[in-house]
Amino acid sequence: MENKAIICKDLTKQFGDFKAVDKITFDVDQGEIFGFLGANGAGKTTAMRILCGLSYPTSGEATVAGFNVYKEQELIKKNIGYMSQKFSLYDNLTILENIEFYGGVYGVSRAEIKARSADLVHTLGLEKEAKKLVGELPLGWKQKLAFSVAIFHRPKIVFLDEPTGGVDPITRRQFWDMIYEAAASNITVFVTTHYMDEAEYCNRISIMVDGRVEAMDSPTNLKQRFNTHSMDEVFYQLARGAKRSGD
How far apart are CA 142 and CA 16, in angstroms? Predict the structure, then answer.
């Protein structure tokens, strides 16, 4: 099991009589790009909060980066990165200040922050903008910087919650190039997305419906199973029977 980044067995989260997450079982390999899909209300946000160490499950078992979701939430947080479409960087800090702030939060030493900051700014081609406020950057650049900051401390796993929402197709493709590079360096990428073309880029996909994982496999195998050439159609066939809405 050493090569497993995430292991879930019968993971459940219940609010009163409502099971937001209903006995989900799956595992994710180290270095895998794993797509976690589901319509609004499917339970994927609740599940992701548990895996990020932000919420306790009601029952079941799970480990993230080898740490237990019940007993080792703080260790989980130190060993993962997280990026959301809604919030990831501080607009009123410069690019370098954001990098330094998050590096410090994740416990990277000052000397390492300085060296890695220079490398990161160079890699992104942002040398001239390094002292600009992040709020002045176009959305696409913000998202690429946010992803770079999320893996700045070299975590074992990075969780991406709809990271490319609102950006143009070319920037989305560039963003996915960065994801491939991260996976090639053995960082596990756990990503939610509403773009079904992006699901094609994942090694495997799970699709949640009403709190349960209804399908999980590679994009190619899922399309064969549902007799279609489109991940959109796979998703619609599964989501059509959903009874809930709102996560």
Answer: 39
Q: How far is the C-alpha of 127 from the C-alpha of 109, rounded, in Å?
A: 22
pTM of this prediction exceeds 0.70: yes
Residues 6+ apart with CB under 8 A from 147: 83, 158, 160, 163, 175, 178, 179, 182
- Are the beta carbons of 136 and 152 closer than 8 angstroms? no
Secondary structure class of 198 (helix, strand, coil): helix
CB 235 within 8 A of CB 37: yes
164-178 exposure pattern, b = at least 16 Cβ within 10 A, e = fewer: beebeeebbeebbeb
Q: Is the distance from CB of 160 to CB of 201 less than 8 angstroms? A: no
Is the distance from CB of 45 to CB of 33 less than 8 angstroms? no
* Cα→Cα distances 87→101, 147, 201, Å: 15, 12, 24
Residues with Cβ within 8 Å of residue 159, at least 6 apart in sequence = 48, 51, 52, 80, 81, 82, 83, 190, 191
**How far is residue 143's CA from residue 85's CA, in Å, rounded to a whole number?**
8
Mean pLDDT score across all residues of the chain: 92
H/E element, 42: none
Tokens standing for residue 30: 């180290």
Whether the pLDDT of residue 247 is over 70: the answer is no
pLDDT of 3 higher than 90: no
